Automatic annotation (TrEMBL):
InterPro entries: DNA/RNA_pol_sf, Rev_trsase/Diguanyl_cyclase, RT_dom, Viral_Replic_Matur_Polypro. This is RNA-directed DNA polymerase. It holds the Pfam family RVT_1. PANTHER family: POL PROTEIN, RIBONUCLEASE H.
Length: 239
């Protein structure tokens, strides 16, 4: 079930929080021998709502009127509140051996004994905060793991094959909407493209208000450069 909270969101004060940069996470965590990935089950639903907030988030359906008891998806500040919770839980463990992005936690170590010790620390901390994991999404003690769309190993990190195929199959944009979709996809890889802002500028200019859509030679050159970089499977190794 999906609830449309747009009206409520329009009158809700923003609670802004800066999510960690994926490039920073990858740089910190890559280069180790052993990895484990944990996923929190039904992430937002692990946060209980106050009674006063339940009323604000109430909704009606063909089955009747309901009030959620847990933090729902679609509410304006759900992501921020969840990030605040997981940060309170794990921030003091965060570093070269542990990183997290919302409900996705990655643990890294140079030896099996070390990663087992760190796993136990995380399990104990999650239990203290009454947070539960999804057993179907847990990966334990793997030397090459996929996390946030990147393959991570002792050799560094590189875009996953799924992400490479998405880039490979993306056609040359034919309108502004397709340009926006392409830019949204490539922005995920911007840290892999030297001088990204300069390279992508001809394509970005097509999204500016009042600019006619003309896919120029400069646009095609920028498109070709970025496609070539990602399709060559760039591997970033921590020095």
């Amino acid at each position: 079930m999906v609830v449309d909270y747009r009206l409520l969101n329009s009158v809700t004060e923003s609670f802004k929080i800066c999510l960690p940069k994926i490039a920073d996470i990858l740089h910190e965590i890559s280069g180790k021998k052993w990895y484990s990935v944990l996923d929190l089950k039904s992430a937002f639903f692990q946060i209980k709502l106050k009674n006063s907030d339940k009323q604000k988030l109430a909704f009606c359906s063909e089955l009747g009127n309901f009030q959620p008891t847990r933090l729902p998806f679609g509410s304006k500040n759900s992501t921020s509140y969840f990030h605040l919770l997981i940060s309170k839980c794990l921030d003091d463990l965060k570093g070269p051996n542990l990183q997290f992005f919302l409900d996705d936690i990655i643990i890294a170590a140079y030896s099996i004994s070390e990663i087992n010790t760190r796993l136990q620390l995380v399990f104990d901390r999650l239990a203290k905060f009454n947070l539960t994991l999804d057993p179907n999404k847990i990966q334990i003690c793997i030397t090459n793991i996929t996390y946030l769309g990147f393959n991570i190993s002792a050799n560094g990190y590189a875009p996953s094959e799924d992400n490479i195929q998405k880039v490979a199959k993306f056609p040359v944009p034919q309108n502004v909407k397709q340009v926006q979709s392409y830019l949204g996809m490539m922005n995920y890889f911007r840290h892999l493209i030297f001088n990204y802002a300069e390279v992508v500028e001809p394509i970005v200019n097509l999204t500016r208000k009042g600019t006619p859509f003309v896919w120029s030679g400069n646009c095609q050159d920028a498109f070709n450069v970025m496609q070539e970089i990602i399709l060559n499977k760039p591997n970033i190794k921590k020095l």
